[in-house]
Each structure stands twice: as C-alpha cells, then as structure tokens.
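Anyone? Bumping this.
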Amino acid sequence: MGHHLSTCPLCEASCGLKIETDGPRVVRIEGDPDDPLSRGHLCPKAVALQDLHTDPDRLRRPLLRDGSTHRELSWDEALDLAAKRLGRVQKDHGPDAVATYLGNPVIHNLGAMVMTPLFIEALGTRSRFSAASIDQLPQMVAALPLFGHQLLVPVPDLERTDLLLLFGANPAASNGSLMTAGGVTDRLDAIKARGRVVLLDPRRTESTRHASEHHFIRPGSDALAMLAMLHVLFAEGLTRLGKVGAFTDGVADVEAVARRFPPERVAARTGISADTIRRLARELATTERAAVYGRIGVSIQAYGTLAAWCVFALNIVTGHLDVPGGVMFPTPAIDALRLGRFYPPARYATRKSRVRGLPDFADEFPVAALAEEIETPGEGQIRALVTVAGNPALSVPNGRRMQRALASLEVFIAIDPYLNETTRHADLILPPTSPLERPHYDLALYHFAVRNTARYTPAVFARDADARHDWEILAGLAERVAPKGARGLGLKLAAKAATRLGLDRVDRILDLALRTGPRGSRPFGTGDLSMAKLREHPHGVDLGPLEETLPGRLRTANRRIQLAPRFILDDLPRLERELLGPEAPRDAHAQTPLELPLELIGRRHLRSNNSWLHNSQRLMKGKPRCTLMMHPDDATARLLVHGDEVRITSRRGEVVAPLEVTADVMPGVVSLPHGFGHHGPIRMRVASTHAGVSQNELTDELRVDPLSGNAAFSGTPVEVHAING
Ligand SMILES: Nc1nc2c(c(=O)[nH]1)N[C@H]1C(S)=C(S)[C@@H](COP(=O)(O)OP(=O)(O)OC[C@H]3O[C@@H](n4cnc5c(=O)[nH]c(N)nc54)[C@H](O)[C@@H]3O)O[C@H]1N2
Ligand SMILES: Nc1nc2c(c(=O)[nH]1)N[C@H]1C(S)=C(S)[C@@H](COP(=O)(O)OP(=O)(O)OC[C@H]3O[C@@H](n4cnc5c(=O)[nH]c(N)nc54)[C@H](O)[C@@H]3O)O[C@H]1N2
Ligand code: SF4
Ligand SMILES: [Mo]
C-alpha cells in the first residue's frame, strides 16, 4: 500500500488529493483535508484520474499515420521525423509557416508550461495561437491597460465578501475560473449565509442553489447592464473610490460615458428591469465588502472586452478594489510579475493577422483566425501545425472548417494522449504521461487563488521507461528543431541539459524561483519558502488571506490605474449601434417568438471537462448530457415537445440533438454543451458511445469580440426545427 499526496490538474480549483495505491493500481482518491486552499474538497473528476491513467485507449507510444492507418514508432524515430518534417516546411516557406496551438491543459501541467516557451523559441515561429482566445483573453486585454499586466485580473475575496455579483459564471459546474477556490460552492453558501450572492445568467444554473437571487440576462448584453449600473452610481452620487482614488486616472471619462446608459434604456435589451439594475447598483455601493466577478459568459461574447472592463470599473468606482472582501490581487510565492523578462506585460495589436487583420496579444493571434490562415493561399500561409494539449476540432468556432483545415495541412504534429477528433488528422501523435506520473506545482493558478498558499506534490507513479513527459517531448523537439548559429546552439544546449538533468532541473528552477520570490528569503523576500520547506509541508503552506498590494503591484507606466483606456471606450458606439440602435433586435417579448432567431449559449457539466474527459465510463454514466435546452414558450411556438430530436441550424452548420424543454433557460435562448461530437475514426471507445454533437459546428469564426479577437460563442443566432418538419 502506498499513500501519496497529489494535486488534481483537471480544473482551476487545483484540489489537493490523497491517493492510496497498491502496486501500480490506484485504490482510492480522496480530497486532502489538510490542503490549506481546497480543504478536502474534490469532485467526481478527480476520482476519474485513475480511469485516465489506466485507460486502454490512452496512447503510450508515438503513432505515425499512414493514410487512415497508424503504426507505432520509437521515441527517437518519432522525434527525428517530426523535426525533419517541420524543418522542411520552414526551409521551403519560412519559419512562420509552422504554427503552434497550445490547449487548455498546458496551464495545468508544470513541465509543459516550463518547456513550451523553449520549444516555440527553438521553432522560431511567430504564428502562435492558444486557447486563451476562446476563453479569458478579453479579461486580459482589459487588465493590461488598466493595471499594466495581463495577469492582473483581480479575484473576488470570497472568504470575506458579503455581496458577490456573478456575471456569466457557473462555479457549481466549473468549480471556479480566474478564481482558484476548491470547494467553491461551500464558499458561496457561506457568503449567502452572511450576505448575498447574485447571479446574472441566461440560464438558471446549478449555481442558483448557492445564490440568493438569479436574474436572466440576454446573451451578450452584460456590458449594457453594467454601464447602467455605472450610470446609477454616478447619477446618485454613490461612487467612492476610497484609497485607489489617489492613483486612478480617468474617472471623469467613465462618468461621461455612463451618462448615456440610464437603466430604462437598456432594460428591454438586457432583460433586467430598471428597478433591479438600480437596486443592484445601490447594494454594491452601500455594502462595505462587495465584489463583482465576471467569467466565461462575459468573455466568449461579442462585447467581451467591454464587459470585462465594466466589471473592473464597477469594482473600482465603488471602492471595492484591493480591499478585504472586495476584489484583490493574489501574491503567489512564485510571482510571474517578478520574473520580468520571462513574463513581461503583453504587447497588444503590434501585428495583425494576415487574412482578417485581427490583433495579436502576447505574441499570439486569435485562434478564430487559424483555419483561414491555413486555407488562404499566399505569402505567409500556414502549412504545418504543432498542437500541445489542444483539441481545436471541437473547441474553436466553426469546427467543421477547422477540421477541413487540419486535414489540408502539409505537416501536423500533435502532442496529445488520445487519437481524437483533432489528432486523427495528425501525421504524428506524441503521447505524454498521465497526470499521476507527474509532479505538480501550480505556476499559473496561484495568480488567481482566493487565498495565498503553496503546495508541491511529487508524482504518484514513476513513469515507464518507455513513456515521455510532455516536457521531455517538448525538449526533444526543441533540441532537434533549433536553428543553426549561436542562438540555436544555446537553445539546443538548454533543451539537452533539461533532458539530461530530468525533473531535478524543474525542482531546482522552482527552488530558485521560490527563494528569490516575495515569500523567499532573498534578496527582497519576507519569508523562508524553498523547495525544502514545501517538501517538509507536503499538504501545502498557508500564506494567509489575500493582501492589499496597490499601488505597488501596478505595472502601468506611471504606476497609476488607467480606468478609461481610449480603445475600449471607442468600442461603445458599436455596442450602442448593434444592441440599442434602430436595426437592433429589441425586446424578445415584444415580438412573437418566431420572429427572432434563437440565441445559442453553452453549458458546462460537473462530470465533464471541455472536450476530452468523455472516455471515462464513471463520468459518462447517467442521463445524456448533450441536449438542447429550450424554454417552454419557444418550444410551444415551434410545436416541439420534450424529447424530440431537433435540427439546430446556424449560418455555419447544423446538428441534431434531443430537446430538453425547461423553464430554466431564458425565453429566446437555447443551450447546448460544448466539447461533444466524438465522431469519425477516433480511438476513444467510451466517448464514441456518448458522441453527442459539437456546438462549434454551429458557432461562427467571424463572430468575435473585435478588440481581443476572442471567439463570440455566446449569442450565436440559430433556428430549431422538428427533425421531420
Ligand atoms: N462553444 C464553446 N466552445 C468553447 C468553450 C465554450 O464555452 N463554448 N470553451 C472554451 C474554453 S474556456 C476552452 S479552455 C477551450 C479548450 O479548448 P482546447 O484546449 O483546445 O481543448 P480541450 O477540450 O481542453 O482539450 C485538451 C486536449 O489536450 C489533451 N490533453 C489532456 N491533458 C493533456 C496533457 O497533460 N498533455 C497533453 N499533451 N495533452 C493533454 C486532450 O486529449 C485533448 O485533446 O474550449 C473552448 N471552446
Ligand atoms: N466541470 C467542468 N469544469 C470546468 C470546465 C469544464 O468543461 N467542466 N472547464 C474549465 C474551463 S476551461 C473554464 S474556462 C471554466 C469556465 O468557468 P465558468 O465561467 O464558471 O463556466 P461555465 O460553467 O461555462 O459558466 C458560464 C455561464 O455563463 C452563462 N452565459 C453564457 N452566455 C452569457 C452571457 O452572454 N452573459 C452572461 N451573463 N452569462 C452568460 C452560461 O449560461 C453559464 O452558466 O471552467 C473550468 N471548469
Ligand atoms: S474541482 Fe474536481 S476537477 Fe477541479 S481540481 Fe478539484 S477535483 Fe479536480
Ligand atoms: Mo477555459
């Protein structure tokens, strides 16, 4: 029997786990009650880590595709071949002809996170993409000018707040995002018990049980509702910036724009009454410890950057930034903001994507533009792709076009444990070890944790001699693709050294970063953190509640908050024109339900994780999940009943799904989960039998938030018909 402490890498809650093993077998997985952040919480996905580990479909060795068949290669053969093929494309068409796409799990994977930059550097390509632009990018685009760094997205101080307003988040399913808080529903219940939790969401979600009130809000209209709240705050003299007033510029500009949005002007379009908007604004202003939080519902929409900015503005003008119980900046033990050169403030809009002219951010282009960059001939066309832990076939808007583009690539290398909807198009699949074979320290998520803590957990199982970690695959590729010349030689040596020294090297890097970080002993630290200390405290070290950090933590040029960035305010006329102008669809109820298209939104489920955790029988059992939710009024108007198979059509495609008629979704809105659609020659037996359909066959790559280029999945216009009618 072995007893291990581990960390769940599946979602942002980063729960501490206790794992019991018997030889190579997992006997039990439990939450670690002594983890200072997750405090014993875990969800059903953690238990499925053992399924992932033993999954016979999980690839163990590199797979080479030959037409529609695959054969295994040795690691050396595979890495040599990958480098040779990528090198040939770069030689013929230049370094940028090879693109990279980093998927969501990279953020949860210590080795991949450390080694991916080295690999991309060695590849020398500027055609970089990631899942950020189908996720939180608008929040980062808004944070950068306000606070000076894209990581400075403040998190709600859940442990001390008395009023929490949530726009577009469903923590009961997602377990919190841009808000690392294991056991988040307990935390919501505690806030509800001592104060109030208010949800604004087009669906009455699982989180409603943990909230004091819920309001339906029309998809994409959050910025309007929040601008009207700002209007009330200024009009009624309720703003008070508190201490941040001494270092905040642009308040008058915000007041000037807010004047244009009296609650009556936005009520019909948002679905929220003027009275409610007024009441929420007043409560926010008069509750000492209050926080506004917005998550994926406000970022995967056409006004994502504006909405993210509104969240910041509401917190700032009501004096809720950087105070206990408001929204605060965590101070992680390894602080990216102090790593200056390695994680500088993003450059924004310094380049435009070739075909559509979307702005770049942090040297990446929006992934909504990837398919067209592959398909459009001409100078600069992308001809090869490397994906690291990404499933763009199911994750990006207009997935069908994405799949066509993937199939047309000259070379496609996928670092991924599965033969799935994306990797079936790859020439080579390079499968990494499972999470139980890897050590973990959360370099990323502590920047968004609701309490400062630090935890390091070693691997539960040693990797097989014939298996490779993500970072080893990346280092192996980096070594082989590094260019000739002095710089290339440096990269090659770094990659070689990393491979030779193994994970000791990562430990040593962590140790250095901990010691020289804000909680280390030198040169400016105030603590004694080191790897030795983390090993002495395997459950994690509690560094206490969030602390006030302003103005010191600001990274703007003049170390002041820039509350009113011109480029963001300049987007307001578009919002007004499209949502309030004479051409705009008005109040859905003022028209009969058949006159307007339905607006599509997504849905997450506790037992599911984006597109890739559907191969665990344990997680997939139960009622089918890939259903279309529709309000009874809309169903009646279309002569549809619960259980019907319905055809959902959009400008981009059509899918068929069973209908779930429920008053929990707003009239005029329909909801289908994303991440399903496990069809075609994939090697995921359980997932294939719960295939479902992909929401992203309906979404449109041309619908983006123009400021960030982030995909606007929410609010995609669709129509729904009986399958035979
Ligand atoms: N319509 C719609 N689309 C959405 C969303 C939505 O709400 N609605 N949500 C978006 C969001 S928030 C996100 S983050 C994206 C996610 O989009 P992606 O990151 O592209 O996709 P994932 O579903 O996370 O798939 C992860 C892939 O990595 C592989 N993988 C898992 N673990 C590892 C690992 O440790 N190493 C390696 N090398 N591979 C691994 C899996 O097999 C899978 O192929 O989807 C986005 N797409
Ligand atoms: N179990 C599970 N956990 C996960 C994931 C998962 O797939 N499964 N994915 C992980 C990832 S990658 C992420 S990014 C996080 C996301 O974490 P959350 O943001 O909490 O994710 P969701 O559960 O999708 O909640 C978003 C909510 O926004 C609502 N919404 C949609 N459009 C709008 C809109 O226009 N306005 C408003 N106000 N609301 C809107 C939806 O109805 C939904 O309830 O979750 C993470 N955790
Ligand atoms: S909430 Fe569930 S999936 Fe997320 S880290 Fe915790 S155990 Fe893992
Ligand atoms: Mo995400």
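Late reply, but here is one note on the structure posted above: Residues 75-93 form the longest helix (19 residues).
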